[in-house]
Amino acid sequence: MAREESKFEWQKSMKLLREKAIEIFAEYGYFQTKISDIVKAANVTQPTFYLYFESKDVLYKEIITDFQTNLEKIIDESVSESNALQNSKETIHVILNRMFNYFSLNPDLTKVGLFESDVPTASKILSQKLKSVVEKDSRFIDEDDIVLHIFIESLIGSIERLTLSALLSEKVESKKLAEEIVNIYFAKEKSVVTA
Amino acid sequence: MAREESKFEWQKSMKLLREKAIEIFAEYGYFQTKISDIVKAANVTQPTFYLYFESKDVLYKEIITDFQTNLEKIIDESVSESNALQNSKETIHVILNRMFNYFSLNPDLTKVGLFESDVPTASKILSQKLKSVVEKDSRFIDEDDIVLHIFIESLIGSIERLTLSALLSEKVESKKLAEEIVNIYFAKEKSVVTA
Amino acid sequence: MAREESKFEWQKSMKLLREKAIEIFAEYGYFQTKISDIVKAANVTQPTFYLYFESKDVLYKEIITDFQTNLEKIIDESVSESNALQNSKETIHVILNRMFNYFSLNPDLTKVGLFESDVPTASKILSQKLKSVVEKDSRFIDEDDIVLHIFIESLIGSIERLTLSALLSEKVESKKLAEEIVNIYFAKEKSVVTA
Amino acid sequence: MAREESKFEWQKSMKLLREKAIEIFAEYGYFQTKISDIVKAANVTQPTFYLYFESKDVLYKEIITDFQTNLEKIIDESVSESNALQNSKETIHVILNRMFNYFSLNPDLTKVGLFESDVPTASKILSQKLKSVVEKDSRFIDEDDIVLHIFIESLIGSIERLTLSALLSEKVESKKLAEEIVNIYFAKEKSVVTA
DNA sequence: CATGAATGAGCATTCATTCAT
DNA sequence: GATGAATGAATGCTCATTCAT
Fold first, then answer.
1. Is the minimum CB–CB distance between D26 and chain C shorter than 8 Å?
2. From start to end of D57-172, where are the E strands?
3. CA of D46 and C1' of E11: distance in angstroms?
4. Checking CA distances to B1, which of A22, A37, B52, D165 falls within 20 to 30 Å?
5. Residue C135 φ then ψ, to 5°
6. How long is the CA D63 to C1' E10 vector, in angstroms?
7. Angle value at C-alpha D72, between D68 and D74, nearest 5 degrees
8. pLDDT surpasses 50 at C189
9. Could you tell me if B89 and B182 are in contact, meaning their C-beta atoms sit under 8 angstroms apart?
10. Which nucleotides of F are covered by protein (CB under 7 A)?
């Protein structure tokens, strides 16, 4: 028993460092986060950091990749779950619900993954996925590409901003937020009713 | 003559430095912009920089304040111009039109002012101003504050994102973009018709 | 049985570590050899290294001392073997033959021992020993010390360089090399004939 | 006048740093030379070092290249000067004379350039140049390549070693040293007579 | 005999900023 | 108005070495 425990001991510092790194990256951003800050928060010394992570940069990218992988999985699951649904409105609603739920459970990771400046790949994922959901909607079949593009990008902008200023600030809970966004973007269709 | 010349020469370096700073800040962001890059681009030496600006930080804030002042003025003018109008839809439309026009004329300044991470004051201005426009709308008088907050923040998110991915990327011109955003956010009302 | 096995197992890691250390020191030199490299090559962990060796430095010096001891023995044996010979030429020839033979059988150890920069003690040994052989030669009895010194040092330089660029590079075999060096340094006397 | 002086002022720290670097590299070798040592010796701070040199590594290579360039020039000049001479003996003598003279005037640079471990390019230069001088000698026209190779490499070894243990240690002056080496390597021909 | 985990001490390099001219 | 020269203060990263198990 004790043996098995010690076998996973190595994860202790590593996990702790990663957690603290996420917290501090979330609060201060990449450039203002010093490795000395991270190790101080984790109560280890600098060389220990390099025992587990190649560099500050690599850790940062690992974290972001993590977030993106999760994000992608969530969207894909939502889409396949609501596969039977005919309109994109309901699919988007399911996606938003799950996504915001994930975001609120991982606020710091979300901050890092969604608002990192240099590599806006989370946005790219959102862009792709949402586009493939919405473009089948009858509402856009006669419109040109630009209108669809604007709709999607607008939606992503809303998601990003509201995640920060409503969800993670704990002003609005995820369910309500998803509902209201759907109400805005699918106003012409009949309103969503809260369960 | 020599005197008059120097009258115009004066601050030549200062203007050039500020211009180059805006360009480079826009491309690389605050932390990845080195003063040595700015002065190199302006063909002066480092001490010259400190002749005109107190520090990197202060220059950055000056630039952002500049942008914010302009932004505020534009919104205020738009509001007073469309004062007679009864519904917020038209007012927002006018604001967006003018704002996007300004943005597309000052792409680099906009990038710096709108997407600087640390001090989201541009967003605050937008938030305040748009709120005061929209809250009079009949659509929100029966709703609670949260719904209004979400509407405003969603709109700001859309504006920010579309500024980057549609306007400054030159995929959509300002007029069209303003129109489409209004169509999304005021879908229940009758559609905007292009002039 | 298990006991006997461990009797042979004992120092298995030690020998392996020393061997790998010699290889890596030979290839990369003292400063560019990391203990982590050595233990990796020996498939053990870092603390195991310190189980057998006090430090990197001490191991290095042990290796060099090893080489020097062997070198000294080889020269001494050669000298006593050719004790009867009247001229230094033959003695030198025997020394070179044996020495080069030893070098070519231990190329990595030779590289470390002969070309370590900081402590040129191998050279000192060569210097001493060769001097005591040559100084009895009639050729030098009337000359001043300087000429003898130059002769010895020149010979050592030749040995060192040719060890690297002819012997260990496998361009020339030890016997031929010894012969040619003698031909150069004892040209006035009648030429050595290959056996 | 003062103006012209200040125009070359920038060379002051740079030259001083390079000089001190050569001294310290010569004494301690590349790996044991810290930039902090160099700047301390030159009485400047670390950033000043980077004002003039890209890195420790680049400076080191610059120094070595410097030495090699000079070495090459000296040999080439010696060769063309003694062009009329029929035998390689005299040419080698001239080369050695000039070379040792240069070495004794630049002892530290020579130590760095001639005994740097990683990049034995100085040796390569010597090898090439000396080979082209000697291979025309009647003495080698009937011999195989190996004998020539051994002769050259032996000579280089002698030069390197004696430079350190006779010339730079100030035991022998350059003229005498050149003469004695020639006496060793061209013993069959009639002896060189000191001027 | 061996190792997982950790660290003290150091090192090259960078960058905003300043002073004398 | 402008610059040549210099620096204080960090910061990321490395490596030999050790301790508890």
1. no
2. none
3. 12
4. B52
5. -65, -20
6. 26
7. 115
8. yes
9. yes
10. 1-21
Rounded to whole angstroms, the Cα distance separating D139 from C183 reads 13
Name the token pair of C27. Answer: 């290839």
What is the average per-residue pLDDT within A116-144? 83
State the architecture of A1-53 in CATH terms.
Answer: Orthogonal Bundle (1.10)
Under 8 Å between Cβ of A162 and B147: no
Q: Which CATH number fits domain C60-185: 3.55.40.20, 1.10.150.20, 1.10.357.10, 3.40.50.410?
A: 1.10.357.10
Instruction: List the nucleotides on chain E closer than 7 A to a protein CB.
Output: 1-21
Phi and psi angles of residue A189, each rounded to the nearest 5 degrees, phi first:
-70, 165
CA distance C62 to C74: 18
- Topology of the domain covering A56-185: Tetracycline Repressor; domain 2 (1.10.357)
CB pairs under 8 A between A and B: 93
Number of H helices, E strands in chain C: 10, 0
Distance CA C153, CA C131 (A): 9
CA–CA distances in Å: residue A36 to residues A48, A113, C69? 11, 22, 49
B45: nt with nearest C1' to CA = F3
For residues B39 and A168, give the distance between their C-alpha atoms in angstroms, rounded to a whole number. 40
* C-alpha span between A33 and D192 (Å, rounded): 73
Among A20, A191, A177, A193, CA closest to A102: A177
Cα D182 from chain centroid? Answer: 18
Mutate to test the interface with A, among B142, B154, B169 (most CBs of A within 10 A): B154
Q: pLDDT per residue over A145-177, tens digit each?
A: 899 999 999 999 999 999 999 999 999 999 999
Q: Which two tokens stand for residue A23?
A: 């917290």
Does CATH place domain B57-185 in 1.10.357.10? yes
Per-chain mean pLDDT for chain C: 88
Domain ranges of chain C: 1-53, 60-185
Residues C14-54 pLDDT 10s: 999 999 999 999 999 999 999 999 999 999 999 999 999 99
